[in-house]
Write a structure and sequence with these properties.
The protein is built from six helices and seven strands, in the order ββαββαβββαααα. By secondary structure, the chain is an alpha+beta fold. The N terminus and C terminus are likely disordered.
């Protein structure tokens, strides 16, 4: 008998609720952990639900009889499941959780001038930071989403991330045409991430983004690159 080992889940949303911006959705029978509110009873009549598809890859151990010498003892399969959900704004009586206070960002005109001089377009909005080579653009989250940590301030996090994506952009075919595939094989993605993080650290020092040593975060990234060589998205 096969036994599930692990799996990571993702969701696609096919929205029929245009104009609703709340990021929370719930199935009509899902209940709030705190108030135990039944969404089926509190959803207004006539409201339209949105379809989401939850999917994930699940790994299984093969039966011993199926495993031959040298074979991988695991196999995988994809699981997909659909749900109809309501946006939080459609649910009567539901109170949105309080948002954490927005950290104050101190503008760094040197970084902003530097990035403007590169000529690389930066778009602000959403919740993710990434560089998209196909369009040659940098996408940055809303500034209010950046928060500080034990080792960095919100300001440092914002500008370090922006510079990180800027270093990614230097690898575009119209610039350095950087390609690590021949040198690092399957670790190409990790090598690129290491370049971007080291480049960001150097630029942060040069452009006065931080006055503290970034070696702790660099060491953590370096260890992560060596232990996780699988290709990932360019972030």
């Amino acid at each position: 008998m096969r036994r599930r080992l692990n799996g990571a889940g993702f969701c696609w949303t096919f929205s029929s609720t245009e104009g609703l911006w709340a990021g929370r959705r719930a199935h009509h029978t899902q209940r709030r952990p705190q108030a135990r509110t039944d969404y089926r009873r509190s959803s207004p009549q006539g409201e339209k639900a949105s379809l989401i598809v939850f999917y994930k890859e699940i790994e299984f151990e093969k039966d011993a009889a199926e495993v031959k010498d040298g074979d991988d003892p695991t196999s995988s399969a994809w699981l997909a499941r659909g749900y109809w959900v309501f946006n939080a704004e459609q649910v009567e009586g539901y109170e949105q959780p309080e948002k954490p206070p927005v950290a104050e960002i101190e503008r760094n005109e040197r970084v902003e001038a530097f990035m403007a001089d590169t000529g690389i377009e930066t778009k602000w909005g959403g919740h993710s930071a990434f560089y998209r080579p196909s369009e040659d653009i940098i996408q940055m989250p809303e500034q209010g989403l950046f928060t500080g940590t034990d080792t960095t301030t919100a300001t440092e996090a914002l500008y370090a991330t922006w510079l990180h994506e800027g270093v990614h952009a230097t690898g575009h075919k119209s610039r350095l045409d950087r390609n690590f595939a021949g040198r690092f094989g399957t670790q190409e993605r990790s090598a690129e991430e290491l370049v971007a993080e080291l480049g960001s650290a150097f630029l942060c020092a040069d452009l006065s983004v931080t006055t503290t040593s970034p070696d702790i975060d660099e060491r953590r990234l370096h260890d992560g690159c060596l232990s996780n060589p699988r290709p990932t998205a360019m972030h």
